[in-house]
Design goal:
The structure holds 2 protein chains of 2 kinds. Chain A is about 60% helix and about 5% strand. Chain A is mainly alpha-helical. Chain A is globular, with a radius of gyration of 25 Å. By secondary structure, chain B is mainly α. Chain B has 13 helices and 4 strands. Chain B has helices at about 15-25, 30-35, 70-75, 80-90, 130-140, 145, 150-170, 175-185, 195-210, 220-240, 250-265, 275-280, 285-295; strands spanning about 60-65, 95-100, 115, 125. Residues about 1-15 of chain B have low confidence and may be disordered. The chains are: A mainly alpha, B mainly alpha. Chains A and B meet through helix 3, helix 6, helix 8, helix 13 and helix 14 of A and helix 1, helix 2, helix 7, helix 9 and helix 10 of B. Chain B: This is Mitochondrial outer membrane protein. Chain B: It comes from Aspergillus aculeatinus CBS 121060.
């Protein structure tokens, strides 16, 4: 049986645009014989039941995520395809800790660099998606979803202002709100954006960027000391954590030839110059230039319709929650899922609890709207002239949108 | 399209303009505007700070999640973030009093924070992110991050892997939430059932949102497997030493580990589903490490 690895498609002369996919490709390329696997750039997470890429397919079995794929390959080959087999003691502990470190530090930085920084997203990443990776109409649907997820994932770094387009939109919205509220005359034009916003990256970002990149790259530089070390854990052959670093650092090291604002690559060159060299050497060693590609299937109308349906569903507030919840329940109840009995009950319980919350939020929205309408009827606001009745519906729409978002304050726990 | 005809705010529109406005999709609808014109109805003066027996103490005061009895005896807090800093200051030999508090009282929205006896700068409270710097200035202990390159790397196990599984075990797991978190965080803060229900919901939502930041769905099995690996790595790192990184005295890393291991193994927490405890008890040296450090309290 030939294993199929499904990944996000190629971009920036790398075999994939996603770091986890790159890491998995490198791992398979280093651990498996060439004829044992094929690489399919399907670029559609819905191919796998968990709705994630990278996903490895072996007949009817699907495994997703880098770590799970590594574990599955070890079990499947009875220990033959395992780069970590020789690790013991402190090396194994280091491998676990490095993996955790890379998984914590890199995804938010890559999200900021590729998706949140608007120059990079609109000038490099979006064109890559539409020309090489996706087909119409997914090009309209999938990149904005990934971008929204990237914004959520990098929110805590406090650099969301790298998204200049959103800033500009906020400014316009504030302006039109001020006009609508009668605070500004409509004839007053929108003031020109401040020069810091239009010319490249604002200097105000610099300090924050220094701090977040230093937190990730300085320990990384220390990990690759001393200079004669070929792999992260010493040793004379690569391990899974090298593959993971290769995946993340390949994207982090992208220079100005690929991205318009290559601030992340610059920071990496400055703070961990050896990593850039190391990445180039590892890319050659992992043979990323010659991979067993297989053409993905042409998208059929069913798949296209499916993607469209999923996008609409996931963009609708309450429906989205119900869907997420059903997906979890399916995982909990499917017998094939690799869960112990206890875990399955726990997951099922969690899902049922979650479902209650969803219905509670539906009830809150409906109750809120009813209370508002009732109050307005009571006070007599709705009994006015002909024009007023039209407003009634509009109010309801607005109310639904106002109640649904996050709770008023965040508990930091 | 009606913008040229717009009148000054507060003026009553006549029927003709009202009809014209109805067509203007983007203007604020008149009934809504009429409601909001009435706000604010009354602005109350700010409340006085609540008086309590702790407010006239002179020493350093660390505000953490704890109960009144725990605060009197300086017992460990039941929140890992608070316990980490409580333990660190205790290990560093700094004198301080514990004050029970909640997120709502904190200037940054998160506990712990410290009010120093000798004010620094503009008498502002010190948030947890600056506590280490403050402690170094007070007792001139070393900054451990500089001493060992593994510090930051292994700290990510605690801040990420173990924190995530902690969030899952305490807030998302419904049995544990009802038995532990509800008692410690919700019931302690108010007696009003409606507020309790809202607080409980918010806590669980916040924990879920935090977990969903890094993955598309919450996979309990994967979280527990990662925590198991994390404990294994920490156990290997500790080895036969008394403290992490072979230090003569416990330091920040020991405090961070202790904050989780103590709460996971503490019988007073009353865990219903003790999966984390099972994973942790496999590593005898981590259990002994916790017992050694518990003597400081």
């Amino acid at each position: 049986m030939v294993l199929e690895l499904h990944v996000w498609g190629p971009a920036f002369s790398l075999p994939s645009i996603d770091a986890q996919c790159l890491a998995t490709i490198a791992y398979l390329s280093l651990a498996l014989p060439k004829d044992a696997w094929v690489l399919v750039a399907s670029s559609d997470p819905s191919v796998s039941p968990t709705n994630e890429l990278p996903a490895l397919r072996n007949g009817n079995t699907w495994v997703s995520r880098f770590r799970n794929i590594v574990d599955y390959l070890r079990q499947y080959s009875a220990g033959d395809w395992d780069l970590d087999a020789e690790l013991a003691g402190l090396d194994r502990a280091d491998s676990i800790a490095f993996t955790s470190f890379l998984d914590t530090q890199f995804p938010p930085l890559l999200a900021l660099s590729l998706y949140v920084t608007s120059q990079n997203y609109y000038n490099s990443v979006l064109p890559a998606y539409s020309s090489q990776i996706l087909t119409w109409p997914s090009t309209w649907l999938i990149p904005p979803q990934i971008r929204a997820a990237a914004k959520r994932a990098s929110d805590h770094l406090g650099l969301s202002s790298l998204d200049l387009v959103a800033l500009e939109e906020d400014r316009k919205r504030e302006h039109s709100a001020a006009v609508a509220a009668g605070r500004l005359p409509a004839s007053l034009p929108l003031p020109k954006a401040a020069p810091t916003i239009t010319s490249g990256l604002a200097t105000t970002h610099r300090f924050r960027m220094e701090a977040v990149t230093a937190a990730a790259f300085e320990p990384l530089a220390a990990m690759l000391q001393p200079a004669q070390k070929n792999y992260l854990l010493g040793g004379d052959r690569p391990t899974s954590v090298d593959c993971l670093l290769l995946g993340y650092a390949s994207l982090a090291a992208l220079g100005p030839e690929s991205l318009q604002e290559a601030w992340l690559g610059e920071a990496l060159r400055q703070k961990a110059p050896r990593v850039v060299e190391w990445v180039r050497r590892m890319q050659r060693e992992a043979g990323l230039a010659s991979l067993p590609w297989r053409k993905p299937e042409r998208p059929r109308w069913v798949t296209v319709g499916n993607t469209l349906w999923n996008t609409v569903a996931d963009a609708t507030p309450i429906w989205r929650d119900i869907r997420a919840n059903t997906r979890m329940r399916e995982i909990a109840h499917s017998q094939e899922a690799d869960l112990s009995g206890e875990e399955r009950t726990a997951l099922a319980e969690y899902v049922t609890g979650y479902k209650k919350d969803v219905w509670l939020s539906v009830a809150v929205v409906v109750g809120g709207v009813a209370a508002l309408v009732g109050y307005m009827a009571h006070v007599g606001l709705l009994g006015g002239g002909e024009g007023d009745e039209e407003f009634e519906e509009e109010d309801e729409d607005e109310e639904v949108e106002v109640v649904q978002p996050e709770l008023p304050f965040g508990w930091s726990i | 399209m009606t913008s040229e005809r717009r009148e000054a705010p507060g003026q009553t529109p006549d029927n003709a303009t009202a009809a014209a406005r109805a067509r203007d999709f983007f203007s604020v609808p008149a009934p809504v505007k009429r409601i909001f014109d009435k706000f604010p109805l009354v602005t109350y003066p700010a409340n006085d700070l609540p008086y309590c027996s702790w407010s006239n103490r002179q020493g350093n005061r660390l505000f953490v999640f704890t109960d009144a009895a725990g605060a009197r005896h300086g017992r460990p807090s039941f929140n890992p973030q608070c316990l980490k800093w409580q333990a660190y200051l205790r290990f560093a030999g700094i004198d301080f009093d514990i004050v029970p508090s909640s997120n709502h009282a904190s200037p940054t929205g998160a506990l712990p924070f410290l009010l120093p006896a000798l004010p620094v700068g503009n008498n502002a409270p010190i948030p947890s992110s600056k506590l280490q710097k403050w402690a170094i200035e007070q007792v001139h202990c070393e900054e451990e991050q500089q001493l060992n390159t593994r510090f930051e790397v292994y700290a990510s196990l605690l801040d990420h892997r173990i924190r995530n599984v902690w969030l899952y075990a305490l807030y998302v797991d419904s049995e544990n939430f009802d038995a532990v978190a509800r008692r410690l965080y919700v019931d302690a803060s108010t007696t009003n059932p409606a507020v309790r229900a809202a607080l409980a919901l918010q806590l669980q939502q916040a924990a879920r949102a935090e977990l969903l930041k890094t993955s598309t769905y919450i996979d309990a099995g994967a979280l527990e497997a990662e925590a198991g690996e994390a404990f294994e790595a920490l156990s290997t790192l500790l080895g036969d030493s008394v403290h992490f990184f072979d230090r003569p005295n416990p330091g920040l890393f020991d405090a961070s580990v202790f904050a989780y291991t103590h709460l996971i193994l503490d019988e007073k927490m009353g865990w219903k589903r003790d999966r984390l405890g099972q994973l942790l008890r496999r590593h005898e040296n981590l259990v002994q490490h916790r017992e050694r450090l518990l003597k400081f309290f």
